[in-house]
Amino acid sequence: MSRSNAKLGMYIVFVARIFACGFIFGSALGSLNAQQLADASASTSLHPSSDYSSSSGSPSNTTSAATPGSLTFSERFDIYARSFISPQTYIGPALGAGIGQWEDSPHEWGGGAEGYGLRYGSGFGRSVISRTVALGVATADGEDDRYFRSNESGVWNRTRHAIASTFVSRTSSGGTMPAYSRFVGAYSAGFIANAWEPPSENSIQDAFLRGTTSLLSNVGWHMFKEFWPSIHNGIHHQQD
């Protein structure tokens, strides 16, 4: 396949991802508003994600009484600092570098260990930028962009919650709002990366594609955070 055809295919995928984002975002507000009603009638709060949880899925003592929106700047910065020792920080760039290596993208970086290192470094750099920008935006607009596992039962309900939580954040008043911090962080990182990406990958379209890919990758991580505690506990009980 020629590079022009490959670029055309990439842009088609990009448009499809934008459409998917719009569709998911349209259903996200309704999904989390329904979740709010369930939260109000539940006797316990949502379970914080692994940002503040133990590997078994039980909230740690640090934030056992945490509720959506109740974050000081110190707590926000603690979450930010802890994120750099989470698997997501390293597995995401590693997977992205592997895909780029397989696709020979960008082709200027070549193959081998050096090419993989450049791709990994680029992905890791974007991750750092995205998290840093998101911290600033969330602090400014009062978002609580932590992931809280659903109180609902059923695979579909929990999956819908994980998807919706990528595009909607909680507020300090207990409501919901678009996850501006995640959007701005992802796309800022995508555009800033143009400073070091080679010519074949530093267009406006490439920057948007990187941002959209980063945003949608959060869906996968939220799915993991939603279901891993149940899987982990199930394995643990079987071993017992």
Describe the structure.
There is one protein chain. This protein is mostly helical and 240 residues long. The protein has one domain (3-239). Helix content is 66%, strand content 5%. It has helices spanning 3-41, 73-82, 87-103, 112-141, 155-167, 180-192, 204-239; strands at 47-48, 143-144, 148-149, 168-171, 176-178. It has a 3-stranded antiparallel beta sheet. The radius of gyration is 19 Å and the shape is globular.
Provide a short characterization of the protein structure.
It is built from 7 helices and 5 strands.
Count of distinct strands: 5
Please give the radius of gyration in angstroms.
19 Å
Spatial order of the strands in the main sheet?
2-4-5
Structural class based on helices, strands and sheet pairing: mainly alpha
User: Portion of residues in helices?
Assistant: 55-70%
Number of helices: 7
Which stretches of 5+ consecutive residues score pLDDT under 50? Answer: 11-15, 18-31, 33-45, 50-66
Based on CA inertia axes, which overall geometry fits? globular
- How far apart the termini lie comes to 53 Å
Order of helix and strand elements from N to C terminus: HEHHHEEHEEHH
